[in-house]
Amino acid sequence: MLTFARWKYFVILLVLVVSVIYALPNAYPQDPSVQISAARSDGLQVNASLAKKVESLLSQAKIPSKSIKVEDQGNLLVRLGDTDQQTRAADLLRPQLGNDYVVALSLAPTAPAWLEFLRAKPMPRGLDLQGGVHFVMQVDQASAIDKRLDAYVEDVRSTLRDNRVPYTSVVRRGNEALVATLGVGADTANAQSKLRIAFPTLTQTLQDQTLTLEVPQTELQRISLEAIEQNLNTLRNRINAFGVAEPVIQRQGTDRIVIQLPGLQDTVEAKRQIGATATLEFRAVIGNEATADAAVRDRSVPPDARVYYTATKQPLLLSKRLLVSGEQLVNAQPMTDPQDGRQGVSITLNSVGGQRMLDHTLENVGKRLGIVYVEQTPITTMVDGKEVQTIRTDERVINSATIQGVFGKNFQTTGLSAEESKALASQLKSGALAAPMIFVEERVVGPSLGAENVKRGTMAVAYSFIFALSFFLIYYRMFGLITCMALVLNLLMVVALMSIVGATMSLPGFAGLALSVGMSVDANVLINERIREELRAGIPPQTAIATGYDKASGTIFDSNMTALLAGVALYAFGTGPLQGFAITMIVGILTSVFTAVTVSRGIATLIYGGNRRKLKSIAI
Amino acid sequence: MKIFPLTLLPNDANINFMKMRWLSIAVAAIIMFVAIGAMATRGFNFALDFTGGNLVEVHLDKAASLDTIRDKLAADGYDSAQVQTYGSGNELLVRLQPREGDDSSAATAHAAQAVMKAVTASGNTGKILRNEFVGPQVGKELALNGLYALIFVVVGFLIYIAFRFEWKFAVAAIITTLHDVIVVAGWFAISGHEFDLTVLAGILSVMGYSINDTIVVFDRVRENFRSMRADPEVILNKSINQTLSRTVITSFVAFLTVVALYIYGGGSLRGMAESQMLGIIIGTVSSIFVACPLLTLGFLKVTKQDLLPKAKDDAALARRP
Question: What predicted TM-score, i.e. pTM, was given to this entire model?
Fold first, then answer.
């Protein structure tokens, strides 16, 4: 019999309300805006006086702004009327604010606060729909090779030392070889065999007491290939940390990496996270503050030491010998020292780093260990009218504590602000960059093109809807109307679900939406045709409706399950645009089963159900 | 009672599809082999997504019509140039596939010339900001993943349909689906239309549509096998005829929605819409002319025993009113 449980109506109503609420933010346009934030966490503050300065700069240039406001995250957000004003404002502000601030284009939501309170957010849009950040970065492979060869030198020394082979020096000869001069009477055979085990890829030649380890060309190629792979992985981890849906991180050519971050609002943070290459270096402290002051004053820095400065500009002498570097880091986590409540980072090293740390601390309890924070920031300067990319390296001693006891792989470092330790931990954890990178290109993909694509996509979906709806209304009359309601709810649900999960909408996504209309059509046609069939067989209308829905449900389930399988495969094995398309397809299939089977039945029961036994005909 | 007289197809359609099964299977096979032949001999006109190409960035003195520039480039031998605006609209990003015979450095030089020519011809002056050769964005990884996806789908279909229906139905459904995918892909090889990532997505979605269509017909076959006492061929014929109006209407409306995509979706969705339009037609036709006839041939020949006395099916049937 044609009945429908009351609680199911309640569920449908709930789904309808939730769908409307979570689909709604997509209807609000986003303001083109310019976002200004401090270039460094310990740099100048973003505050009301900066807002005043920006306001006067903009009014001087006659660029009207909708609002200029400092946001909770410490960013200054300038909302502008259109994308043209946005570009002009950014171009104006960038040179005026200088290197202390980062000026970025972004899109600011305009949805009312109550929607934000319900965590209703619009779907992030792909690069093709809203534009987005597009970076090209060049990997400095020479420096990767340098770094690796320096590490080799250090490793050769420690191998010789560990095996008690006396040596006078181990030096690098360009990028081709390492030359070890062994001590008089050293056991050369032993040294050779030990080094062969430690460095199987290097070819050895012995002449008197001089052992030359040649680095083959293939090894150098491998190092640069590994460097770019490691950088790619590091970037992936860092980008995953800010939760961008469908980022594109690809190698281009032999030394470039392309990054596209669609739908990213906070471009400032992105650039900082990607661009900054922070790492830690552990070096032994030589002398103390007083000897360092004296050495700087007399210009008598010992040959094995270098002058570093602390955050308070206090000089300190640190050994040139790098004890442990960022590469040996396995894990890093922000923590609060339980004893004094200071912020810090808890660090885990790999076995090589741990061993070195153990060796060092064994011999140097009571001496001081300096931790150097190294940050490399890419900067652009104009030389002779040309842009020149350089890397500014900031090194500062963040900690120079006395070694209290022997430690190895696990230890803590304190002396950072809460924010710094969080940022440092996340950067360390995501892996060090094998080689520094510079931005060779930084772009915001044109929002005008995106707007045009949105317009086209919306139009395509709208027309596919209109086509389907008008056909149903004519062909199935009342049941066509029911189908139309189910289809509209279906679209609402797809949009709401995609907004809730934060799936990125792209141009192929629109196609997926249109296709999900087609899928939903299929379920509804199956039902309507079944009902007609039952009617033709002479079944009374109410029973025909009920039987039609029941019989069609099984078919709908089977046919949609298989289509779903195809969607899942597309998602699992696809990339970028394929995944965007697959997501809409999957969501569309799931919602269309619900709307076609449950919702349309509910509506049909409302119209034809109940105690209307005398129902003679139905409009189908 | 009276039923609304508007119907696309007569309600009592009784076309003897099984009678022409040899013909329909032969035609389907020929089309498929033509498609395979075209793919093998002509290959695809892969887009920049797959091949790589030149990226030329121009700064224009004033905003220009993208279509004019596209036309000029086409006239110069760059048929599939992608022209986009960047930033303020005075900056163009042009992506070109290298012309035949160009190596990367020649391609770079030619691309710059062609773009400057196109810009100047459209009454504008421009300055090349950047011109570089890009490697393919999609490498072997994606090709391999596509293969995995295909295997995943085929195995998934096999298991699901074999479980819900019967292994013969599973095999017939998969042959039909693969046939459809091959034919649509073959069309892109024959027509030489550009094959990009969205076309790939479109073709893979054809799989979903095709299997969907086939399952609906098979579902009715299964139902009729249980309720009718007749030869398999009669049952198959009856099933196709019963679902015919549904099949035609669904395909008609689905086709309409994709046509909207083709007309209004703009250039970048055209390839996808094209593959889907074709896929809907092929998928519909094959569910009638390929899937069911396969069930009468050789080792795929279904009998009443295949579907009747099975405990699990009875249980499943019992759950359905």
Answer: 0.67
